[in-house]
Design brief:
By secondary structure, the chain is an alpha/beta fold. It contains 14 helices and 13 strands.
C-alpha cells in the first residue's frame, strides 16, 4: 500500500475511533500531513489538553507521550513505537536528582521538559527551550541545578548571570555533534544566509548564530526571513518548512549528522497500526508519580506565564 492510500485509511479510521494524532515537528512529512496538530514537545501537551478526543496517538518519543499523560490523565495516550526514547532524557535518574537536592538544600532543581516523568517528579520546575531564561531569572533561589542538557544550561547561565547555575553534563547527541567549523563552512557556501540554531547546540555554535531559539521559534523565524536561512537543528525542521512554506530558502546544516534515529523510528504504518489499536504502547503512570511530576510543570506555568 502506498503512502497516499495509507494516509487516507488513517484519516478515516481516526475519525471513526474518536482518535487524534499529534506529531512532533521532527516527524516525517507523510506523518505531519495526517496529524491533527504538529509542534514541539510542550505544544503537543497543550494541544492534547484542548482536544475533545479521548484517545491520543503521540508521534514522537516517550517523554513527550508521558508529558501528555501527566497533563491529560483522563485520556488514553498511545506511543506507536515503544522503543522511541530520548537519550538526553535518560541521561539522568531521579535518584541522582534526589541525592543532589539532599546535599544542596538551597538549590532549585530545574529540568528541561525533555526528561522522564520520574525526573520531573523530583525537580522543582520544568522549562522549555523558549521559556528557560525567563523562568530561571524569575526563580527566588539564587543557586540553580540545570538538567540534563549542559548546552541549553550554558546558554541559560550566560543570559542569567545573576544566578549561580550548576550544570548537569548531559546533552542531545544529535545537536551536540554540530561544530563551529560546520557553521563556518555553510556560511562560506552561503555568505548572505543567516544562521538559526537550537540552544541544545554547543556554545561555539550558538556564538556564531544570528538567531537562537526553540523548534517553533526557528520555524517562525525562517518563515519570516526573505533570504537564505541556515538551520542548525534536527533535519525534520527543514523537511517541515519545505513542505509547509516551499517558497522559503532553507539550508540544512550538516544533514547527515542531524537525523534523530529515535524520532524517525515511527513510520506511517506504525501510526496506522496504533490508530486501529493493533500496536503501540499505552502510557500508564502511577497517580502519585503523575501528581508529583505535574507540580514541576505547574511551576513552569507559574514562573513562565
Amino acid at each position: 500500500m502506498d503512502n497516499k492510500a495509507l494516509q487516507a485509511l488513517i484519516l478515516s479510521e481516526k475519525k471513526q475511533r474518536n482518535t487524534v494524532v499529534l506529531a512532533h515537528t521532527y516527524q516525517a512529512p507523510e506523518i505531519i500531513d495526517i496529524a491533527d496538530f504538529a509542534g514541539d514537545s510542550y505544544a503537543l501537551s497543550v494541544e492534547a489538553q484542548k482536544c475533545e478526543a479521548k484517545r491520543i496517538i503521540i508521534c514522537g518519543v516517550r517523554f513527550m507521550a508521558e508529558t501528555v499523560k501527566i497533563l491529560s490523565p483522563e485520556k488514553t495516550v498511545v506511543l506507536p513505537v515503544a522503543q522511541a526514547t530520548c537519550p538526553m532524557a535518560e541521561n539522568i535518574t531521579p535518584q541522582q536528582v534526589k541525592a543532589f537536592k539532599e546535599q544542596n538544600p538551597d538549590c532549585c532543581a530545574v529540568a528541561y521538559i525533555n526528561t522522564t516523568a520520574q525526573v520531573k517528579a523530583e525537580v522543582d520546575v520544568c522549562v522549555t527551550s523558549s521559556s528557560a531564561i525567563k523562568i530561571v531569572s524569575s526563580l527566588p533561589q539564587n543557586k540553580i541545578l540545570f538538567l540534563p542538557d549542559v548546552n541549553l544550561g550554558t546558554y541559560v547561565a550566560e543570559n542569567v548571570p545573576q544566578k549561580e547555575v550548576v550544570l548537569w553534563d548531559g546533552c542531545c547527541p544529535v545537536h551536540n555533534v554540530i561544530t563551529a567549523q560546520d557553521v563556518l563552512d555553510a556560511k562560506a557556501k552561503h555568505p548572505n544566509a543567516v544562521v538559526a540554531v537550537h540552544p541544545e547546540c554547543k556554545k561555539e555554535v550558538v556564538d556564531l548564530a544570528d538567531m537562537v531559539g526553540s523548534t517553533s521559534e526557528i520555524i517562525d523565524y525562517a518563515k519570516a526571513h526573505d533570504g537564505e536561512v541556515i538551520i542548525g537543528t534536527v533535519r525534520g525542521v527543514v523537511d517541515y518548512l519545505e513542505d509547509k512554506n516551499p517558497q522559503g530558502k532553507y539550508i540544512q546544516l550538516e544533514a547527515d549528522k542531524l537525523t534523530c534515529k529515535n524520532m524517525t523510528m515511527t513510520r506511517l504504518q506504525d501510526v496506522y497500526q496504533a490508530v486501529i489499536g493493533a500496536c503501540g504502547e499505552e502510557i500508564e503512570l502511577d497517580e502519585d508519580l503523575r501528581i508529583a511530576a505535574k507540580r514541576s510543570i505547574d511551576n513552569m506555568l507559574k514562573y513562565g506565564g
